[in-house]
Amino acid sequence: xxxxxxxxxxxxxxxxxxxxxxxxxxxxxxxxxxxxxxxxxxxxxxxxxxxxxxxxxxxxxxxxxxxxxxxxxxxxxxxxxxxxxxxxxxxxxxxxxxxxxxxxxxxxxxxxxxxxxxxxxxxxxxxxxxxxxxxxxxxxxxxxxxxxxxxxxxxxxxxxxxxxxxxxxxxxxxxxxxxxxxxxxxxxxxxxxxxxxxxxxxxxxxxxxxxxxxxxxxxxxxxxxxxxxxxxxxxxxxxxxxxxxxxxxxxxxxxxxxxxxxxxxxxxxxxxxxxxxxxxxxxxxxxxxxxxxxxxxxxxxxxxxxxxxxxxxxxxxxxxxxxxxxxxxxxxxxxxxxxxxxxxxxxxxxxxxxxxxxxxxxxxxxxxxxxxxxxxxxxxxxxxxxxxxxxxxxxxxxxxxxxxxxxxxxxxxxxxxxxxxxxxxxxxxxxxxxxxxxxxxxxxxxxxxxxxxxxxxxxxxxxxxxxxxxxxxxxxxxxxxxxxxxxxxxxxxxxx
Length: 496
Fold this sequence. Notes:
This protein is α+β, with helices and mostly antiparallel strands. The protein is built from 16 helices and 23 strands.
């Protein structure tokens, strides 16, 4: 029996899972790490803490699985995508905290580029829109802030990359400074049509190519973890951004198939195959993956910044729940939100609005409003944001999606999933294994290691646990969406 170790590095925690060759999860381990908020709108991580939590969870998962590490065919890595790390190539030490995808500190730079008429160029080359969400402006900021950043980057003294690059560098003892095409496509520095770093974009952001990793396929040999990791050398055979990984894990490998991952944020992706389809409704065109020597595959994506993080706000910010799952019990105490609407734009609004200056807005409260109503409005706010993305995709394609495939921790909430089906007017399909992100990384690694000969071999693994059918009327749905749109307008451009 061959085994795969999947390393799933997320925004709030690191997790490792051991799978057998039938993609049965044998053991897992998870560890949260600290979030740093040095100023309003800024979000940072300690890259060494990320490394340490990945290493410790991997060792724990392998130990709990009872397998001999010698039987591991390969390692697959999936990760939060746009978060950027800069480190000293010689020492392997970060020169600044990682700047997280949620961070908005470069909003002014993005506005200046937009005013200078650069968005059309960037969108045509990268499929992305001008927003501080992506890595390029964050990397430019770090190099500007640290002493001699630009010159150290140009000389090769510094290395930079998204979290996959950072982990692979650490796992290989500095031997491999690489990334995969899916992660590179989120930096705003890679041309998605060629799969290479784009010199015009590098010049635009004043970033030297010398600091950037080599771009490789998502499945194949990306490096070899040293014996310091698990006691022997193990090949790294897969790396893919978390949302692309979930798309693959849901086996959305045919044009038109759509998934949404409910994690810290919510991410809706529709697979488009070898065609990089441009959106007319402010969605993103992104690389889905590249397997070995096969052509690049693409997807259209919409991103919601505050999904499960909205529930964390109820817990950590308001203190009305003690743990995230409690939101379901609290919200179920009332039949609806009682007219309360939460627009969770705490870090701005993502697609299709792309408003970095929007802020969280709680509307419609009365003296009768309770914590239960706010909890219910929070779940509604997540579902409405996803519905906005689905509507944008419908406008782009001219077609209504037949169903929505869901995964991620928050999709375990029956109440949230039923709310989602009601607001969409579309069935929602939840698989037996809702951890599609780690599963996709395991699948990529297994393909790269030769555990399975092709994607078709994997098609047997998808199992639907529950299908949520819309229970509301079209009239009610339309009325609720109208109120939501009014609330969004109130939240937009709040700090401009």
